Amino acid sequence: MKRACLIDTSPSSRGGVAKLMLYLALIYKMLGYNIVWVETRRASFSMLRTYDKIHVHGLSLRLKAFWLILLSKPKKILTLHGFILDEVRTSLYFSHGILEAFKALIEYINISIHWIVLKLILISLIYDYVTAVSYVEARKNHIRAIVIPNSTICRSSGLSETP
Predict the structure, then answer these.
(1) Is residue 161 predicted with pLDDT exceeding 70?
(2) Which of 103, 134, 138, 163 has a Cα at 20 to 30 A from 146?
(3) What is the pTM of this model?
(4) Residue 90 falls inside a structural domain
């Protein structure tokens, strides 16, 4: 089996989601999967249709990626890694100056509309499964999800850090 992990950052980036994706890739390898980690902007329909499962992390997909994923046949999984509206709301509260507050407000409105449309329409059309990394996250996002806590692999496990 093959699994494509789509994410907006590259596997070499430093950050929480990238690190968790690395751990997830290692677990998939242990389960016998061939892993390919693809940046969203590099995904193509011909590539995606060759996989058995597509695992998308986060909601930052571009319109092209939505169509690619919607039209592809493999099982599709969405994993939510944060409180969608709280993250933007926090940047609005802690913005300094009128210009920064205005930009944060526009971003909040944009993401709110995006999230409402995504939650009400697109998630049920596109994804076969939705997972969240905690019960709190699923509840805060008001979405039914399978909760799969973040995996952590210790260095003493002997596993390579490269998927």
Answers:
(1) no
(2) 163
(3) 0.71
(4) no
